[in-house]
Amino acid sequence: MNSSGYLADPRIRWAEWLPWVAALGGFFLLPEYLALGARILIFVLFALSLDLILGYAGIITLGHSAFFGLGAYTAGILSAKLGVHDNFLQLVAAAGAAALLGAITGAIILRTRALTLLMLTLAITAILLEIANKMTTLTGGADGLSGVVVAPILGLFKFDLFGKTAFLYCLAVLFIGWFFVRRLIYSPFGAMLTGIRENTARMHAVGAPVYRRLVLVYTISATMAGVAGALLTQVNQFVGLNVLGLEPSGDLLVMLILGGVGRLYGAFVGPVVYLIAQDYLAKQYPEYWYLGIGLLLIVVVLFARGGILGLMDKWLPFSKPGSSAKASAR
Amino acid sequence: MLMGVLAPTSGAILLGGEDVTRAPQSRRVRGGLGRTFQINTLFRNLPVLDNVALAVAERSGLALRMWRPASSYQVIKDEAMALLATLGLADDAAARVADLPYGKQRLVEIAIALGLKPKVLLLDEPAAGVPSEESSRILKNLENLPSEIAILIIEHDMDIVFRFAKRITVLVQGEVLVEGTPDEIARDKRVHDVYLGEGSHG
User: How big is chain B by its Cα radius of gyration, in Å?
Assistant: First the structure.
Protein backbone atom coordinates (compact mmCIF):
# COMPACT_ATOMS: atom_id res chain seq x y z
CA MET A 1 0.00 0.00 0.00
CA ASN A 2 2.79 2.41 0.83
CA SER A 3 4.74 3.62 -2.13
CA SER A 4 6.12 6.46 -0.07
CA GLY A 5 7.98 7.08 3.13
CA TYR A 6 11.49 7.22 4.49
CA LEU A 7 12.45 3.71 3.45
CA ALA A 8 10.95 3.75 -0.04
CA ASP A 9 13.28 3.59 -3.01
CA PRO A 10 12.30 6.62 -5.13
CA ARG A 11 13.88 5.42 -8.36
CA ILE A 12 11.51 4.88 -11.25
CA ARG A 13 11.03 1.16 -11.84
CA TRP A 14 10.73 -0.29 -15.34
CA ALA A 15 7.05 -1.12 -14.84
CA GLU A 16 6.35 2.57 -14.29
CA TRP A 17 7.29 3.28 -17.91
CA LEU A 18 4.66 0.85 -19.17
CA PRO A 19 1.76 3.36 -19.20
CA TRP A 20 3.78 5.72 -21.38
CA VAL A 21 4.89 2.97 -23.73
CA ALA A 22 1.28 1.80 -23.95
CA ALA A 23 0.07 5.34 -24.66
CA LEU A 24 2.59 5.86 -27.47
CA GLY A 25 1.82 2.38 -28.80
CA GLY A 26 -1.85 3.27 -28.86
CA PHE A 27 -1.05 6.48 -30.68
CA PHE A 28 0.59 4.63 -33.57
CA LEU A 29 -1.50 1.45 -33.64
CA LEU A 30 -5.04 2.70 -32.94
CA PRO A 31 -5.36 6.04 -34.78
CA GLU A 32 -9.15 5.75 -34.94
CA TYR A 33 -9.38 5.78 -31.12
CA LEU A 34 -7.34 8.92 -30.46
CA ALA A 35 -10.33 10.95 -29.30
CA LEU A 36 -11.16 8.30 -26.70
CA GLY A 37 -7.47 8.14 -25.87
CA ALA A 38 -7.24 11.86 -25.16
CA ARG A 39 -10.34 11.60 -22.96
CA ILE A 40 -8.71 8.76 -21.03
CA LEU A 41 -5.50 10.77 -20.54
CA ILE A 42 -7.50 13.72 -19.20
CA PHE A 43 -9.35 11.53 -16.74
CA VAL A 44 -6.07 9.92 -15.65
CA LEU A 45 -4.82 13.39 -14.72
CA PHE A 46 -8.13 14.10 -12.97
CA ALA A 47 -7.94 10.76 -11.12
CA LEU A 48 -4.34 11.46 -10.10
CA SER A 49 -5.48 14.68 -8.46
CA LEU A 50 -8.19 12.78 -6.58
CA ASP A 51 -5.76 10.06 -5.51
CA LEU A 52 -3.54 12.69 -3.94
CA ILE A 53 -6.26 13.77 -1.51
CA LEU A 54 -8.29 10.56 -1.19
CA GLY A 55 -5.58 7.93 -1.43
CA TYR A 56 -2.78 9.72 0.37
CA ALA A 57 -4.35 12.32 2.65
CA GLY A 58 -7.60 10.39 3.22
CA ILE A 59 -9.98 13.23 2.30
CA ILE A 60 -13.22 11.77 0.97
CA THR A 61 -15.01 13.88 -1.62
CA LEU A 62 -17.90 13.73 -4.03
CA GLY A 63 -17.23 17.23 -5.26
CA HIS A 64 -13.98 17.06 -7.14
CA SER A 65 -15.79 17.97 -10.35
CA ALA A 66 -16.12 21.50 -8.93
CA PHE A 67 -12.46 22.13 -9.79
CA PHE A 68 -12.54 20.14 -13.01
CA GLY A 69 -15.63 22.05 -14.14
CA LEU A 70 -14.29 25.42 -13.04
CA GLY A 71 -11.10 24.75 -14.98
CA ALA A 72 -13.10 23.69 -18.02
CA TYR A 73 -15.30 26.80 -17.94
CA THR A 74 -12.39 29.13 -17.21
CA ALA A 75 -10.53 27.92 -20.30
CA GLY A 76 -13.75 27.96 -22.34
CA ILE A 77 -14.85 31.45 -21.33
CA LEU A 78 -11.36 32.85 -21.84
CA SER A 79 -11.30 31.48 -25.35
CA ALA A 80 -14.89 31.91 -26.52
CA LYS A 81 -15.76 35.19 -24.77
CA LEU A 82 -12.47 36.98 -24.15
CA GLY A 83 -10.47 35.89 -27.17
CA VAL A 84 -7.55 34.37 -25.26
CA HIS A 85 -6.51 31.55 -27.58
CA ASP A 86 -3.12 30.65 -26.18
CA ASN A 87 -3.35 27.13 -24.76
CA PHE A 88 -0.79 27.78 -22.07
CA LEU A 89 -2.54 30.90 -20.79
CA GLN A 90 -5.81 28.99 -20.70
CA LEU A 91 -4.23 26.23 -18.62
CA VAL A 92 -2.62 28.68 -16.21
CA ALA A 93 -5.84 30.64 -15.75
CA ALA A 94 -7.80 27.42 -15.15
CA ALA A 95 -5.20 26.23 -12.66
CA GLY A 96 -5.30 29.56 -10.86
CA ALA A 97 -9.08 29.68 -10.65
CA ALA A 98 -9.28 26.09 -9.41
CA ALA A 99 -6.51 26.71 -6.87
CA LEU A 100 -8.35 29.74 -5.52
CA LEU A 101 -11.61 27.81 -5.22
CA GLY A 102 -9.75 24.90 -3.64
CA ALA A 103 -8.09 27.11 -1.03
CA ILE A 104 -11.31 28.95 -0.14
CA THR A 105 -13.68 25.97 -0.03
CA GLY A 106 -10.99 23.78 1.53
CA ALA A 107 -10.48 26.28 4.34
CA ILE A 108 -14.21 26.13 5.06
CA ILE A 109 -15.06 22.46 4.67
CA LEU A 110 -11.88 20.71 5.86
CA ARG A 111 -12.74 21.59 9.44
CA THR A 112 -15.37 18.88 9.13
CA ARG A 113 -14.90 15.18 8.53
CA ALA A 114 -16.53 12.05 7.14
CA LEU A 115 -20.17 12.37 6.11
CA THR A 116 -20.42 16.11 6.76
CA LEU A 117 -17.37 16.68 4.59
CA LEU A 118 -18.76 14.44 1.87
CA MET A 119 -22.04 16.36 1.79
CA LEU A 120 -20.28 19.75 1.75
CA THR A 121 -18.09 18.76 -1.21
CA LEU A 122 -21.19 17.61 -3.02
CA ALA A 123 -22.98 20.86 -2.19
CA ILE A 124 -20.16 22.97 -3.64
CA THR A 125 -20.14 21.26 -7.01
CA ALA A 126 -23.96 21.30 -7.07
CA ILE A 127 -23.91 25.07 -6.49
CA LEU A 128 -21.37 25.56 -9.29
CA LEU A 129 -23.51 23.44 -11.60
CA GLU A 130 -26.49 25.66 -10.88
CA ILE A 131 -24.45 28.81 -11.46
CA ALA A 132 -23.17 27.47 -14.78
CA ASN A 133 -26.72 26.54 -15.69
CA LYS A 134 -28.12 30.00 -14.92
CA MET A 135 -25.35 32.29 -16.16
CA THR A 136 -26.19 31.60 -19.76
CA THR A 137 -24.50 34.72 -21.16
CA LEU A 138 -21.14 33.44 -19.95
CA THR A 139 -21.52 29.69 -19.98
CA GLY A 140 -24.17 28.99 -22.57
CA GLY A 141 -26.20 27.24 -19.88
CA ALA A 142 -27.70 23.90 -20.87
CA ASP A 143 -26.71 24.41 -24.51
CA GLY A 144 -23.06 24.47 -23.55
CA LEU A 145 -20.33 26.83 -24.54
CA SER A 146 -19.16 26.48 -28.12
CA GLY A 147 -16.78 28.57 -30.18
CA VAL A 148 -13.75 27.60 -28.14
CA VAL A 149 -10.62 28.26 -30.16
CA VAL A 150 -7.15 27.04 -29.25
CA ALA A 151 -4.17 28.48 -31.07
CA PRO A 152 -1.53 26.03 -32.34
CA ILE A 153 0.48 24.58 -29.46
CA LEU A 154 3.78 26.47 -29.09
CA GLY A 155 2.72 28.27 -32.25
CA LEU A 156 3.55 25.11 -34.24
CA PHE A 157 1.09 22.26 -33.75
CA LYS A 158 -2.49 22.84 -34.81
CA PHE A 159 -5.26 20.69 -33.35
CA ASP A 160 -6.02 18.38 -36.28
CA LEU A 161 -9.19 16.54 -37.23
CA PHE A 162 -7.80 13.15 -36.25
CA GLY A 163 -6.92 14.25 -32.74
CA LYS A 164 -3.21 13.49 -33.07
CA THR A 165 -2.05 16.82 -31.66
CA ALA A 166 -4.70 16.70 -28.95
CA PHE A 167 -3.58 13.24 -27.84
CA LEU A 168 0.11 14.07 -27.67
CA TYR A 169 -0.64 17.39 -25.99
CA CYS A 170 -2.69 15.66 -23.27
CA LEU A 171 0.01 13.02 -22.91
CA ALA A 172 2.65 15.72 -22.37
CA VAL A 173 0.58 17.55 -19.76
CA LEU A 174 -0.25 14.28 -18.00
CA PHE A 175 3.42 13.34 -17.95
CA ILE A 176 4.29 16.60 -16.20
CA GLY A 177 1.40 16.10 -13.77
CA TRP A 178 2.47 12.51 -13.06
CA PHE A 179 6.08 13.51 -12.51
CA PHE A 180 5.02 16.21 -10.07
CA VAL A 181 2.65 13.97 -8.09
CA ARG A 182 5.25 11.24 -7.95
CA ARG A 183 7.85 13.60 -6.51
CA LEU A 184 5.27 14.84 -4.03
CA ILE A 185 4.31 11.36 -2.87
CA TYR A 186 7.87 10.24 -2.28
CA SER A 187 8.82 13.47 -0.48
CA PRO A 188 8.57 14.19 3.26
CA PHE A 189 5.32 15.98 2.39
CA GLY A 190 3.93 12.76 0.94
CA ALA A 191 5.03 10.80 3.99
CA MET A 192 3.32 13.41 6.16
CA LEU A 193 0.08 13.02 4.17
CA THR A 194 0.24 9.26 4.67
CA GLY A 195 0.65 9.96 8.36
CA ILE A 196 -2.55 12.04 8.43
CA ARG A 197 -4.44 9.28 6.63
CA GLU A 198 -3.07 6.53 8.87
CA ASN A 199 -3.60 8.27 12.21
CA THR A 200 -4.75 11.87 12.44
CA ALA A 201 -4.61 11.98 16.26
CA ARG A 202 -0.98 10.96 16.14
CA MET A 203 -0.14 13.63 13.57
CA HIS A 204 -1.68 16.23 15.89
CA ALA A 205 0.43 14.91 18.75
CA VAL A 206 3.69 15.25 16.80
CA GLY A 207 2.86 18.90 16.24
CA ALA A 208 1.54 18.87 12.67
CA PRO A 209 -1.02 21.60 12.01
CA VAL A 210 -3.23 19.01 10.31
CA TYR A 211 -5.97 21.33 9.14
CA ARG A 212 -3.57 23.68 7.35
CA ARG A 213 -1.82 20.73 5.73
CA LEU A 214 -5.13 19.39 4.46
CA VAL A 215 -6.06 22.77 2.97
CA LEU A 216 -2.67 22.87 1.25
CA VAL A 217 -2.94 19.44 -0.35
CA TYR A 218 -6.57 20.09 -1.24
CA THR A 219 -5.49 23.23 -3.07
CA ILE A 220 -2.75 21.38 -4.94
CA SER A 221 -5.21 18.68 -5.95
CA ALA A 222 -7.81 21.26 -7.02
CA THR A 223 -5.20 22.95 -9.21
CA MET A 224 -4.47 19.69 -11.02
CA ALA A 225 -8.17 18.98 -11.45
CA GLY A 226 -8.58 22.46 -12.95
CA VAL A 227 -5.83 21.77 -15.47
CA ALA A 228 -7.51 18.49 -16.41
CA GLY A 229 -10.79 20.34 -16.94
CA ALA A 230 -9.10 22.94 -19.14
CA LEU A 231 -7.57 20.15 -21.24
CA LEU A 232 -11.03 18.71 -21.81
CA THR A 233 -12.27 22.09 -23.05
CA GLN A 234 -9.28 22.52 -25.34
CA VAL A 235 -9.60 19.06 -26.83
CA ASN A 236 -13.38 19.15 -27.29
CA GLN A 237 -13.45 22.88 -28.17
CA PHE A 238 -16.69 22.86 -26.21
CA VAL A 239 -17.82 22.93 -22.56
CA GLY A 240 -21.07 21.37 -21.35
CA LEU A 241 -22.78 21.20 -17.98
CA ASN A 242 -21.71 17.55 -17.65
CA VAL A 243 -18.33 18.66 -16.28
CA LEU A 244 -19.98 19.74 -13.01
CA GLY A 245 -22.16 18.14 -10.38
CA LEU A 246 -22.39 14.72 -8.82
CA GLU A 247 -22.09 12.63 -11.96
CA PRO A 248 -18.52 13.40 -13.05
CA SER A 249 -17.39 13.30 -9.40
CA GLY A 250 -19.01 9.91 -8.91
CA ASP A 251 -17.61 8.59 -12.18
CA LEU A 252 -14.16 9.71 -11.12
CA LEU A 253 -14.47 8.06 -7.72
CA VAL A 254 -15.59 4.83 -9.38
CA MET A 255 -12.62 4.98 -11.76
CA LEU A 256 -10.15 5.43 -8.94
CA ILE A 257 -11.69 2.68 -6.83
CA LEU A 258 -11.66 0.38 -9.86
CA GLY A 259 -7.99 1.05 -10.45
CA GLY A 260 -6.93 1.10 -6.81
CA VAL A 261 -6.84 3.96 -4.30
CA GLY A 262 -3.62 5.37 -2.85
CA ARG A 263 -1.20 3.71 -5.22
CA LEU A 264 -0.55 6.29 -7.93
CA TYR A 265 -1.09 3.88 -10.83
CA GLY A 266 -4.65 3.06 -9.83
CA ALA A 267 -5.36 6.47 -11.33
CA PHE A 268 -3.97 5.17 -14.63
CA VAL A 269 -5.64 1.78 -14.70
CA GLY A 270 -9.09 2.90 -13.52
CA PRO A 271 -9.93 5.47 -16.22
CA VAL A 272 -8.55 3.17 -18.94
CA VAL A 273 -10.79 0.27 -17.89
CA TYR A 274 -13.80 2.44 -17.10
CA LEU A 275 -13.80 4.59 -20.23
CA ILE A 276 -13.02 1.72 -22.60
CA ALA A 277 -15.76 -0.37 -20.98
CA GLN A 278 -18.10 2.61 -21.23
CA ASP A 279 -17.22 3.15 -24.89
CA TYR A 280 -17.68 -0.53 -25.75
CA LEU A 281 -20.83 -1.10 -23.69
CA ALA A 282 -22.44 2.12 -24.90
CA LYS A 283 -22.04 0.94 -28.49
CA GLN A 284 -23.24 -2.62 -27.83
CA TYR A 285 -25.99 -1.95 -25.31
CA PRO A 286 -26.75 1.77 -25.43
CA GLU A 287 -29.56 1.46 -22.90
CA TYR A 288 -27.88 -0.77 -20.37
CA TRP A 289 -24.25 0.25 -20.35
CA TYR A 290 -24.36 1.56 -16.80
CA LEU A 291 -25.42 -1.92 -15.71
CA GLY A 292 -22.13 -3.28 -17.01
CA ILE A 293 -20.16 -0.62 -15.16
CA GLY A 294 -22.16 -1.35 -12.01
CA LEU A 295 -21.43 -5.07 -12.22
CA LEU A 296 -17.75 -4.37 -12.78
CA LEU A 297 -17.66 -2.15 -9.69
CA ILE A 298 -19.47 -4.73 -7.55
CA VAL A 299 -16.98 -7.41 -8.58
CA VAL A 300 -14.02 -5.16 -7.81
CA VAL A 301 -15.34 -3.97 -4.46
CA LEU A 302 -16.29 -7.50 -3.36
CA PHE A 303 -13.30 -9.44 -4.61
CA ALA A 304 -10.49 -6.95 -5.07
CA ARG A 305 -10.47 -4.40 -2.28
CA GLY A 306 -7.30 -2.79 -3.59
CA GLY A 307 -8.84 -2.36 -7.04
CA ILE A 308 -7.47 -3.93 -10.19
CA LEU A 309 -3.92 -3.13 -9.12
CA GLY A 310 -4.62 -4.81 -5.79
CA LEU A 311 -5.49 -7.97 -7.68
CA MET A 312 -2.32 -7.70 -9.72
CA ASP A 313 -0.28 -7.49 -6.52
CA LYS A 314 -1.52 -10.92 -5.58
CA TRP A 315 -0.56 -12.42 -8.92
CA LEU A 316 2.50 -10.38 -9.81
CA PRO A 317 4.36 -9.43 -6.64
CA PHE A 318 6.67 -7.04 -8.52
CA SER A 319 3.88 -5.04 -10.13
CA LYS A 320 3.51 -2.18 -7.73
CA PRO A 321 5.81 0.67 -6.85
CA GLY A 322 5.89 -0.01 -3.11
CA SER A 323 6.70 -3.69 -3.43
CA SER A 324 10.36 -3.35 -2.57
CA ALA A 325 9.66 -1.22 0.50
CA LYS A 326 7.04 -3.64 1.69
CA ALA A 327 9.15 -6.69 1.01
CA SER A 328 11.99 -5.28 3.07
CA ALA A 329 9.55 -4.31 5.81
CA ARG A 330 8.38 -7.88 6.19
CA MET B 1 -6.41 19.02 28.44
CA LEU B 2 -2.69 19.64 28.81
CA MET B 3 -2.26 18.83 25.12
CA GLY B 4 -5.08 21.09 24.00
CA VAL B 5 -7.50 18.35 22.98
CA LEU B 6 -9.97 19.43 25.67
CA ALA B 7 -10.50 23.05 26.67
CA PRO B 8 -10.23 23.81 30.41
CA THR B 9 -13.22 25.39 32.15
CA SER B 10 -10.94 27.42 34.42
CA GLY B 11 -7.28 27.95 35.29
CA ALA B 12 -4.25 28.39 33.07
CA ILE B 13 -1.70 26.07 31.48
CA LEU B 14 1.88 27.30 31.46
CA LEU B 15 4.63 25.74 29.38
CA GLY B 16 8.09 27.02 30.30
CA GLY B 17 6.46 30.18 31.64
CA GLU B 18 4.43 30.79 28.47
CA ASP B 19 0.65 30.70 28.69
CA VAL B 20 -0.60 28.05 26.26
CA THR B 21 -4.09 27.69 27.70
CA ARG B 22 -5.69 28.60 24.40
CA ALA B 23 -2.92 27.40 22.04
CA PRO B 24 -3.68 24.62 19.58
CA GLN B 25 -1.98 21.28 19.96
CA SER B 26 0.55 21.92 17.21
CA ARG B 27 1.85 25.07 18.95
CA ARG B 28 2.18 23.29 22.27
CA VAL B 29 4.17 20.50 20.68
CA ARG B 30 6.45 23.06 19.05
CA GLY B 31 6.81 24.70 22.42
CA GLY B 32 8.29 21.46 23.72
CA LEU B 33 5.38 19.38 24.96
CA GLY B 34 5.54 15.71 23.94
CA ARG B 35 3.25 12.89 24.90
CA THR B 36 2.67 9.19 24.68
CA PHE B 37 -0.80 7.68 24.59
CA GLN B 38 -2.27 5.31 27.14
CA ILE B 39 -3.54 3.19 24.27
CA ASN B 40 -1.05 2.91 21.42
CA THR B 41 -1.68 5.60 18.85
CA LEU B 42 0.78 4.73 16.12
CA PHE B 43 0.99 4.59 12.35
CA ARG B 44 0.32 0.87 12.45
CA ASN B 45 0.76 0.22 8.74
CA LEU B 46 3.98 2.17 8.42
CA PRO B 47 7.50 0.99 9.19
CA VAL B 48 8.83 1.73 12.69
CA LEU B 49 11.38 4.12 11.21
CA ASP B 50 8.67 6.19 9.51
CA ASN B 51 6.75 6.47 12.77
CA VAL B 52 9.69 8.23 14.36
CA ALA B 53 10.83 10.02 11.20
CA LEU B 54 7.44 11.73 10.82
CA ALA B 55 7.88 13.22 14.28
CA VAL B 56 11.48 14.24 13.59
CA ALA B 57 10.45 15.82 10.27
CA GLU B 58 7.75 17.89 11.98
CA ARG B 59 10.08 19.08 14.71
CA SER B 60 12.88 19.98 12.32
CA GLY B 61 10.50 21.85 10.02
CA LEU B 62 11.17 19.60 7.02
CA ALA B 63 7.69 18.08 6.77
CA LEU B 64 6.59 20.43 3.97
CA ARG B 65 9.44 19.57 1.62
CA MET B 66 7.80 18.41 -1.60
CA TRP B 67 10.55 17.71 -4.10
CA ARG B 68 13.40 15.54 -2.88
CA PRO B 69 12.52 11.97 -1.87
CA ALA B 70 11.99 11.43 1.85
CA SER B 71 14.53 8.63 1.79
CA SER B 72 17.23 11.11 0.77
CA TYR B 73 16.80 13.16 3.97
CA GLN B 74 19.65 11.52 5.85
CA VAL B 75 19.39 13.98 8.80
CA ILE B 76 15.88 12.78 9.57
CA LYS B 77 16.68 9.11 9.09
CA ASP B 78 19.87 9.26 11.16
CA GLU B 79 18.16 10.94 14.08
CA ALA B 80 15.26 8.48 13.97
CA MET B 81 17.66 5.53 13.79
CA ALA B 82 19.70 6.86 16.71
CA LEU B 83 16.54 7.12 18.82
CA LEU B 84 15.49 3.62 17.88
CA ALA B 85 18.95 2.36 18.76
CA THR B 86 18.84 3.87 22.24
CA LEU B 87 15.50 2.17 22.83
CA GLY B 88 16.79 -1.14 21.49
CA LEU B 89 14.60 -1.06 18.41
CA ALA B 90 17.29 -0.68 15.75
CA ASP B 91 16.69 -4.15 14.32
CA ASP B 92 12.98 -3.44 13.95
CA ALA B 93 13.34 -0.17 12.03
CA ALA B 94 11.99 -1.61 8.77
CA ALA B 95 9.25 -3.70 10.37
CA ARG B 96 5.63 -2.66 10.19
CA VAL B 97 4.52 -1.42 13.62
CA ALA B 98 1.46 -3.68 13.59
CA ASP B 99 3.78 -6.70 13.29
CA LEU B 100 5.66 -5.85 16.51
CA PRO B 101 4.81 -7.31 19.93
CA TYR B 102 2.85 -4.92 22.11
CA GLY B 103 5.75 -4.16 24.42
CA LYS B 104 7.87 -2.95 21.54
CA GLN B 105 4.97 -0.87 20.24
CA ARG B 106 4.96 0.92 23.61
CA LEU B 107 8.61 1.73 23.04
CA VAL B 108 7.76 3.15 19.60
CA GLU B 109 5.32 5.48 21.39
CA ILE B 110 8.20 6.72 23.51
CA ALA B 111 10.55 6.96 20.51
CA ILE B 112 8.05 9.17 18.66
CA ALA B 113 7.69 11.45 21.67
CA LEU B 114 11.48 11.71 22.03
CA GLY B 115 11.72 12.52 18.32
CA LEU B 116 10.03 15.82 19.21
CA LYS B 117 12.91 16.68 21.59
CA PRO B 118 10.39 17.65 24.25
CA LYS B 119 11.18 19.80 27.27
CA VAL B 120 8.16 18.31 28.99
CA LEU B 121 7.14 14.72 28.32
CA LEU B 122 3.75 13.34 29.30
CA LEU B 123 3.74 9.56 29.68
CA ASP B 124 0.25 8.14 29.98
CA GLU B 125 0.65 4.74 31.63
CA PRO B 126 3.81 3.89 29.68
CA ALA B 127 3.74 0.22 30.62
CA ALA B 128 -0.02 -0.34 30.46
CA GLY B 129 -1.06 -3.64 28.96
CA VAL B 130 2.48 -4.94 28.73
CA PRO B 131 3.46 -8.32 30.24
CA SER B 132 5.81 -7.83 33.20
CA GLU B 133 8.87 -9.31 31.52
CA GLU B 134 8.56 -6.73 28.76
CA SER B 135 7.64 -3.85 31.05
CA SER B 136 11.01 -4.02 32.79
CA ARG B 137 12.58 -3.16 29.45
CA ILE B 138 10.34 -0.12 29.10
CA LEU B 139 11.19 0.99 32.64
CA LYS B 140 14.90 0.56 32.03
CA ASN B 141 14.55 2.81 29.01
CA LEU B 142 12.66 5.41 31.02
CA GLU B 143 15.50 5.48 33.55
CA ASN B 144 17.93 6.24 30.76
CA LEU B 145 16.03 9.25 29.46
CA PRO B 146 18.04 12.47 29.61
CA SER B 147 17.51 14.21 32.92
CA GLU B 148 16.84 17.65 31.42
CA ILE B 149 13.44 16.45 30.16
CA ALA B 150 10.69 17.08 32.69
CA ILE B 151 8.53 13.98 32.76
CA LEU B 152 4.94 13.73 33.91
CA ILE B 153 3.86 10.13 34.33
CA ILE B 154 0.23 9.21 34.74
CA GLU B 155 0.25 5.81 36.36
CA HIS B 156 -1.69 3.46 38.61
CA ASP B 157 1.18 1.05 39.14
CA MET B 158 2.68 2.16 42.44
CA ASP B 159 5.97 0.36 41.81
CA ILE B 160 6.55 2.51 38.75
CA VAL B 161 5.39 5.64 40.51
CA PHE B 162 7.75 5.28 43.46
CA ARG B 163 10.62 4.16 41.27
CA PHE B 164 10.65 7.31 39.16
CA ALA B 165 8.73 10.09 40.78
CA LYS B 166 10.34 13.07 42.46
CA ARG B 167 6.97 14.73 43.09
CA ILE B 168 3.60 13.01 43.15
CA THR B 169 0.11 14.39 42.75
CA VAL B 170 -2.66 12.02 43.76
CA LEU B 171 -5.91 12.48 41.90
CA VAL B 172 -9.18 10.98 43.04
CA GLN B 173 -12.29 11.38 40.92
CA GLY B 174 -10.67 14.17 38.96
CA GLU B 175 -9.80 16.20 42.07
CA VAL B 176 -6.36 16.76 43.53
CA LEU B 177 -6.23 14.82 46.80
CA VAL B 178 -2.69 15.58 47.85
CA GLU B 179 0.62 16.68 46.37
CA GLY B 180 4.12 16.06 47.70
CA THR B 181 7.37 14.12 47.59
CA PRO B 182 7.25 10.32 47.38
CA ASP B 183 8.06 10.08 51.10
CA GLU B 184 5.22 12.38 52.07
CA ILE B 185 2.81 10.53 49.82
CA ALA B 186 3.87 7.15 51.14
CA ARG B 187 3.16 8.33 54.68
CA ASP B 188 -0.12 10.08 53.87
CA LYS B 189 -3.07 8.44 55.53
CA ARG B 190 -5.66 9.49 52.94
CA VAL B 191 -3.58 8.12 50.06
CA HIS B 192 -3.29 4.82 51.88
CA ASP B 193 -7.02 4.62 52.24
CA VAL B 194 -7.68 5.39 48.59
CA TYR B 195 -4.89 3.58 46.77
CA LEU B 196 -2.34 1.68 48.76
CA GLY B 197 -4.72 0.25 51.31
CA GLU B 198 -7.02 -1.34 48.78
CA GLY B 199 -5.11 -3.43 46.31
CA SER B 200 -8.12 -3.63 44.02
CA HIS B 201 -7.57 -0.04 42.93
CA GLY B 202 -3.97 -0.66 41.84
Answer: 18
